[in-house]
Structure formats: structure tokens, C-alpha cells
Amino acid sequence: MWLELNGNPISPWHDVPLYPNANDPSIVNFVVEIPRWTAGKIEIKRDEPLNPIFHDERDDAPRFRENVWPYKAHPFLYGSIPQTWESPNFKHSFTGYPGDNDPMDLFDIGQDPGFYGQVKQVKILGGLAVVDDEETDWKMMGIDIKDPLATLVNSVEDVEKYRPGTTQAFYDWFAGFDAEKTPIVGETYQNQTFCLRQVVESHGFWRELVDGTADPNEISFSQTAGDSLKSYISCKKATSKFDLPKKNRPGKPAEVPEKFQRWFYYSSEGELLNPDMQD
């Protein structure tokens, strides 16, 4: 699925601006890849032109997230911050690990369940410096600025004040990522000020990527927004140049296997228990 602007395809990663208002860096645009409580592993495809949103696969089958008690799949909206890049070309100073070669991730704790490809404006409140498979993989906490709680919260501590227990629940969800104990640098949330600096730094890495001065690895960095950059292509020419579909052809979503409609549990040793062994 590609994003569209005035009938032409655009990249959700490279064409959606980072800031909806340059005068307030605490608010960023956010591309929804996974609506709340859905199980599909949906993400931006970094190696295809204009980076469509797709259902990730493993062993030629769509991937899904388990319902690990007490969470229902993804307990928040999950997606990415456009025009950021966790560069894998060096070790990041705070984590000591290279980036995961993707845009920064963000989870939105607001009430709106969202939809695939939705672009929201969210306020960053803090974040978790996750190290996944020896790669830096920031998880920024944000809230939709239209959410009733948004005007009351500016930090992780504020969230805990108005929504007791949620910050620890989200921390525990990420700490048990992919059924393995996932390291979180500092073993706590980093504050808003620090996280906003990380976003600015990541945006700088992205600028180097689309300007052609950084090793792109496998990333397709063509974009239609900045005509002064080497990566620019006219949005009117993108469909023919990249042989993209000219018409919308929605297909049926992949059915969620019965296994992923059941509860999973962690053992006392932190292992994910097979639901078929729990009867």
C-alpha cells in the first residue's frame, strides 16, 4: 500500500515531513503501520521504491503478533516517524550499537485505534532505547494531539499520573519483545528532552541518506518532496518509472490463524508458552 497525494504515489518515509509545525519540535508526524489491538506485522518496506506499507512475511507466510496475556496483540498504535533514520553505519553513542536501518518507531497511547497508513500528529513524551538483535531500535512514546489527554501530559511521569500502570505495562511489553528478554538501555524510559534530541539527530542521518552522502545499504530513498536532493523524482513520473499500480486494487487481508486468536503466556523463566500445550 502506497500513500497518495493528489492522485500520485508518495513515500510514507521520505515524503511526509517530520514536523507539522517547525516551531514546535515536540510534535511530529506519525505514520500508522499497526492499528491498536491488531495482530498483523505491518511495516514500511525499505527496499522498494516509495516504500509501500506491507504485511511482513516469514517462511512465505504473513507474520502475526501473539496475544500475550494480558495484552491483545499490540496494545497501542504502532508505526514510524517519517524523515528519520536509525543509521547502521556506526555505533550510536547512547546504546553502543548501530541502528536498525529503519525509521524511528513510535507507539501512540491515545484512544483512537487508528488505521493502516494514517498520518497523525503526535506529541513525543519520552522513549525506550531498545536493543534488538544487537541493533539500536528506539521506541518513542507519543500521544495524538487530538486525544483528550494530550493537553495534560508532557512526560512519561504525567502519563503515569493520569493513566496509572500503563507506562510499566508498555515497558513490560517491549521488554518481552519477540518472546525474548529484550535489553532496554538504562532499564527505564528516557525523558522527553533527551528523546527529542535523538529525533533531531536521526533526522540528520536521514538527510544524509536522501542527499546521497551516506551508504544507503538496501534502502530505496527516492522521494518526491525535495527537488534539490539527488533522490528526487517528480511524483507525476513515479508511477511509470517504478511500474507502480495505476489503480487501486484492494485485496482481502490475510486471515489471522486460529493460533494467534488464543492467549499466550510467559513461563516463570520468561519463555513463551505454546497455547497448544496449555489444554
From TrEMBL:
Annotated GO biological process: phosphate-containing compound metabolic process
A GO CC term assigned to this protein in UniProt: cytoplasm
Keywords in alphabetical order: Hydrolase, Magnesium, Metal-binding
UniProt-recorded Gene Ontology molecular function terms: inorganic diphosphate phosphatase activity; magnesium ion binding
Necessary cofactors: Mg(2+)
Keyword set includes Nucleotide-binding: no
Protein name, UniProt field: inorganic diphosphatase
Pfam families from the UniProt entry: Pyrophosphatase
Enzyme Commission numbers on file: 3.6.1.1
Protein family: Belongs to the PPase family.
Domain of life: Eukaryota
Top enzyme category: hydrolase
